[in-house]
Structures are given as C-alpha cells and as structure tokens.
C-alpha cells in the first residue's frame, strides 16, 4: 500500500498510484487523482475534487463543498458536510451524504443513494433500466428533486399509477408505481412492456412522488 499525505497542508494536488493507496488530503482545497487500485481517500477539510479511478474505492469528502467521483468498479462515497456532488459512474456504488443540498449521479450499475437532510437532486441521466436499478433510500417528495430524464423545460410526460402492472401499459414515458416505489422509463407508452428500458430506480418508503418533483437536466 502506498501512503500519500498532504504533508503540512501545503499541497493542492495529490496523485495516487496503481496500487491500493491511502490518500490524506487534510485542510486545503485539494485535487486528488487516485488512479488504479482499491484506494482509501480522505479529502479532509476544504472544497475538494476527488477522482477515484479504477478499483473499489472508499472516498470520504470531509468538511467542505466537494465534487467526488468514483469512476470504475464498486465505490463507497461519503460526504456528510457541505453541499456536494457525488458521482458513481460505472459499478454498483454506495453514495451517502448529510444535511447539505447535494447532487447524486449514480451512473451505470445498481447504485444506492442516501441524501440525508437538505434539498437533494438525484440525477438519472445514465439510467437505462434492465439489471441496472438504483435505490434511493430517503427521497422526500416536495423537497428533493429528480432529473436526468427526457423532458423539456415546460412539460413532463409523467404518470403516477397504483402498481407495476399499470406502469407497463401507461401512456406516459416516465411512470411511478405507488405500491412499490418504482420509477420506470416507458418509451413505448401504452404498448405492453417498457420498450427496452423499464425500472430504473426504487424509492424506499414509497414517497408520494408527483410531476412537481422533476426538474430539467442542467448540463
């Protein structure tokens, strides 16, 4: 294992190796690039940018408004302080935040996302259904938002239905099943099935999601 430290708090960029690194960022606004290996990254205080690279990484953002990304494989990303961006990219990732207003981009794979307090945004721009289905553990309807799905700035083609069977024949392209907390992409509308997509996420606790909980994707 390679151990990489910010030393006396003087470094602003830390670069890992292809090994399983332990990287400590301490108190500056650090840029950390971990490269390969199963890394443990502690960004410390400051507004940090972390890229985990390949490998099953553990990333802790510390205090500050951070941008944390896991990249490949199955990553665990925690950031309990500040307003943060947590990105899993590929792999089955676990993304957990605290009381801030955070943005979650699970990416490919089956991800588990916990917003904590605050008004959080869950971005499903890379959600394609099938075997890749995300879990959102604590969505608060009316406070948190969903984005990344195809609709324009004015209208969302959304329906809330009683169960999954009704979702498969809904005429809407984005369908929420109240009985299971499941969100579907339904590209073939009222025809049977979901047109090659299907369930993209489960919202635990079956929150009362409506069209007002969706916002356009801002690139």
Automatic annotation (TrEMBL):
Gene3D superfamilies cross-referenced by the UniProt entry: Serralysin-like metalloprotease, C-terminal
Residue ranges of the TM segments: none
Entries under Pfam families matching the protein: HemolysinCabind
PANTHER family given in the database record: S-LAYER PROTEIN (PTHR38340)
Subcellular location: Secreted
UniProt name for this protein: Calcium-binding protein
The keyword Thylakoid is assigned to this record: no
Entry GO terms, CC: extracellular region
Primary location group: secreted
UniProt source species: Leptolyngbya sp. NK1-12
Keyword line: Secreted
Domain of life of the native organism: Bacteria
A GO molecular-function annotation: calcium ion binding
InterPro entries per UniProt: Hemolysn_Ca-bd (IPR001343), RTX_toxin/Mannuronan_C5-epim (IPR050557), Serralysin-like_metalloprot_C (IPR011049)
């Amino acid at each position: 294992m390679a151990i990489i430290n910010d030393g006396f708090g003087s470094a602003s960029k830390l670069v890992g190796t292809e090994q399983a690194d332990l990287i400590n960022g301490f108190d500056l606004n650090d840029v950390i690039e971990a490269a390969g290996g199963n890394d443990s990254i502690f960004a410390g205080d400051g507004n940090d940018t972390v890229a985990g690279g390949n490998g099953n990484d553990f990333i802790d953002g510390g205090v500050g408004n951070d941008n944390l990304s896991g990249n490949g494989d199955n990553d665990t990303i925690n950031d309990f302080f500040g307003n943060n961006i947590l990105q899993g990219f590929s792999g089955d990732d676990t993304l957990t935040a605290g009381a801030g207003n955070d943005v979650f981009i699970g990416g490919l794979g089956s991800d588990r996302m916990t917003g904590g307090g605050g008004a959080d945004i869950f971005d499903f721009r890379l959600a394609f259904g099938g075997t890749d289905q995300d879990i959102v553990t604590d969505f608060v309807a009316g406070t948190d938002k969903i984005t990344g799905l195809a609709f324009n700035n004015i209208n969302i083609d959304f329906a809330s239905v009683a169960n999954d069977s009704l979702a498969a024949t809904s005429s809407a392209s984005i369908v929420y099943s109240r009985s299971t907390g499941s969100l579907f992409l339904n590209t073939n509308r009222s025809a049977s099935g979901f047109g090659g997509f299907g369930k993209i996420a489960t919202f635990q606790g079956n929150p009362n999601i409506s069209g007002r909980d969706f916002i356009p994707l801002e690139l």
